[in-house]
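Dear colleagues,

As part of the handover before I leave the project, I'm documenting each prediction I ran so the next person doesn't have to rerun anything. This entry is a single chain, and its sequence is reproduced below.
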Amino acid sequence: MMTNEQEARVRGWFAGRLPEAWRGATITVDREEITVEVPLPDVELADASEVERDEARAGRISAWREETREQRIEIAREAEHRYERKVAWAVRMGERTERFTHLAVPVMTRLRQPQRLVLDTLVEAGVARSRSEALAWCVRLVAQHQDEWLSELRSAMTAVADVRDRGPAA
């Protein structure tokens, strides 16, 4: 868990380092990775269906990804050296968010039979291809429905880490 000060340093560095056109990017940090989510102006298509609009967003995101590749690589190398974490990129346009160059980190866990049965049910029902994918699905579902509570919990944990860091040396 990073302290508020450490996260502020990362966010501040990116605020100063990102090009002006990428301002407003959301920076998310965990133990392994820094994700930079850049907002792009939405496509403007008069009388377009939602399918056409979504495909136009996909095309614009693809073009942005290609056009900014070298610049993103340079920024990521600097940040990875400075903060000892990988940098992932994402783009948000309208209702569409697309992530690229992000990590899939293995997480070891021990589950009792009732929890394993939940995962196995999801696999057998075709919701997921494996227990690992089923567990990721469950985590996404909780995050989707409990976002406010998780944000409050993270803030409280960060405050505790800050107080601990300011405490007497052990």
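The mean pLDDT is 90. The first helix runs from residue 4 to 17.

All the best with the project,
I.
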